[in-house]
Hints:
This protein is about 20% helix and about 20% strand. A hairpin with a 4-residue loop joins β4 (about 30-35) and β5 (about 40). The chain is built from two helices and five strands. By secondary structure, it is an alpha+beta fold. About 5% of the residues are buried. The strands form two sheets. It has a three-stranded antiparallel β-sheet, with no helix packed on it.
Amino acid sequence: MTTIKNNYGISVKMMCASCEYKVNDRLMTTRYCKKKRRQVKPRDYCPKWEMSKGLQNAGRQPEVDDDNKNDLDNQDK
């Protein structure tokens, strides 16, 4: 299976499960492709594959604004 690294150096498998264009039905039992407009298998991938936004940012530290930073620092005490 082909893998590609995201913005933070984490390997992501190129398959429908990691694609931006996948859509699951309400019961999460069937996966559809928004680009192909048909049902796809989880491990398939095609030339239209694009890494999902969530996986692009996997490994990224959450941003903390200065107003909440002190609250988070005091939380450990």
